[in-house]
Amino acid sequence: MAELGPVRAEAGELVEVSFTVNGTPATLRLPARVTLSDALRGHLGLTGTHVGCEHGVCGMCTVLVDGEAARACLLFAVQAGGAEITTVEGLGKPGDLHPLQRSFGRNHALQCGFCTPGFLMSSYDLLTTKHGVRPEDLPGELSGVICRCTGYRNIVTAVREVQAEFPDGIPAPGNRATPAAPEPEAAGPVATDIVLPGGAPTIAVEISTGVAVEADRVWTVLDDIHLLARCLPGAELTGDLGGDTYAGRARVSVGPVKLAFQGIARILDHDRASGRMRVLAQGRDTGGAQTQADIVLRTEGAGGTTVLHADAKVYLTGRIAQFGRALAGDISRRMFEQFAAAVAEAASSGHAVPVKPPSALKLMAGTLLRRIRDTLRWGRRRR
């Protein structure tokens, strides 16, 4: 793990940190006081690392840092710069589980599952560094992780079984990306192709909202890609790839589903005179979720106000596709409302404050209120 130099970060200032997670390089920009557990869960979508006490007592957040067990809630993400990190997602694949995972399932050592990631990573560390530990010492050696269901007997049995199966050391984690062999020639430019899937989109939405700002002032924001990016909820522009193509990051969080995408966007049409802008975008998170979108943004001025229209076709795969169409539509509408409000603020003040994605509670409340209003309208029409 890299040593921190004499660098001072102001409160709220974003610090860039790079490390390797389950064999995949990752670079994040986040406040210096964000813990490694929050970075893994909230920024990389690796929610298998559980958070219990946040004091380093319960052991739920155990991960491997440079091959050694560490409490992710006690480390700042910036302290892990340059480190090799392995989370429970890297231990085994869905169709090819690690021996520890198979043994936990076989011996009913899962219980509610909340402590399971911590026990898996701690027992892996134990059987790697002390594969000759005596069976009678296993309870004490594993006492650094707390099981809320008091299912210790089955957990110890599962670990003992794997120890007996691999007396000379257990297999390495099996779900880590293998670095590609170096090319004989210098690598080419970053791939910028965006190809939308065929067939119907997962979600198709048409959204309109008004802002109390003249259309010309709205377009001063739409003309400035850096200012525009800061108006997008959870988004961050990270690079200009040329040819009206840009690299960026985006975070989506709805209840237990937390995703952090890295991807590209290309502006195909940008016509202030006709009030039309078209963008293609695609992104992928470390867990394999992928999103692609074809978005047309139009402005319609009316006196001192502007109506923003967005027509979006969105294609989803992976965990993000767990969102139902109705919920995904509600999320899209709420985020567009946030975007429009941020554009209005930027058009008025000349700067934009980064917009956080809507919280799960606000989304649920907004969805419930919208459904109630729709039901009441339907009831009045029936009378």
Automatic annotation (TrEMBL):
Record keywords, A-Z: 2Fe-2S, Iron, Iron-sulfur, Metal-binding, Oxidoreductase
Gene3D superfamilies named in the record: 3.10.20.30, 3.30.530.20, [2Fe-2S]-binding domain
Look up the record and name the pathway of this protein: Alkaloid degradation; nicotine degradation
Name of the protein this chain belongs to: 2Fe-2S iron-sulfur cluster binding domain-containing protein
CDD domains noted in UniProt: fer2 (cd00207), SRPBCC_5 (cd07823)
Region annotated Disordered, chain positions: 167-186
Keyword flag Metal-binding: yes
Q: Which GO terms describe its molecular function?
A: 2 iron, 2 sulfur cluster binding; metal ion binding; oxidoreductase activity
Domain of life here?
A: Bacteria
Could you tell me which residue ranges the 2Fe-2S ferredoxin-type domain spans? Answer: 15-91
Give start-end of the signal peptide. Answer: none
* PROSITE patterns assigned: 2FE2S_FER_1, 2FE2S_FER_2
Residue spans of biased composition, Low complexity class:
177-186
Which InterPro entries does the record associate with it?
Answer: 2Fe-2S-bd, 2Fe-2S-bd_dom_sf, 2Fe-2S_ferredoxin-like_sf, 2Fe-2S_ferredoxin-type, 2Fe2S_fd_BS, Beta-grasp_dom_sf, CO_DH_gsu, Diverse_Oxidoreductases
Record Pfam families: COXG, Fer2, Fer2_2
